[in-house]
Design a protein that fits this description.
alpha/beta; about 20% strand
């Protein structure tokens, strides 16, 4: 059985909750990522995704230079352990209707992020979603 540790992304990008959405979006573009972990000091505060920026800010006509990631982030953090199977992670995503999970070790330290695309590539690489996830970005 493959585990979350086998497929997770370990290079997590963190920003402070006081970071503007404009800066967060630029960071996502530069790092070619769709999510940022929000941390204040050593405490995890939430997660903000590219979709969050669009749905919770742009669609509401909020100023991206004046709105912070802390104002729109998801605070309800859903976590898995590195030893959990990728099937367990996929079921958790399905049951919670989410696209990403934070991966925390036994001491609750963040060690990675696993996305629905990461799982699709491993569970069914020949599927449409697996193929899309594996393709080079078109930016």
């Amino acid at each position: 059985m493959q585990t979350v540790k086998d497929v997770m992304t370990t290079s997590v990008v963190y920003l402070s909750s006081q970071t503007s959405l404009a800066e967060a979006a630029r960071t996502m573009r530069e790092q070619d990522i769709g999510d940022i972990v929000v941390a204040d000091g050593s405490s995890l505060a939430g997660v903000v995704t590219d979709r969050d920026i669009v749905v919770r800010a742009v669609a509401e006509n909020r100023d991206p230079d004046a709105t912070t990631v802390g104002e729109i982030m998801t605070r309800d953090l859903v976590t898995v352990r590195p030893e959990d199977t990728i099937q367990q992670a996929a079921l958790m995503m399905r049951d919670r209707a989410i696209r990403r999970l934070l991966v925390c070790d036994d001491s609750e330290g963040l060690v990675g992020v696993v996305s629905i695309g990461d799982l699709a590539e491993r569970i069914d690489p020949d599927s449409v979603l697996g193929g899309i996830s594996h393709a080079e970005p078109n930016n």
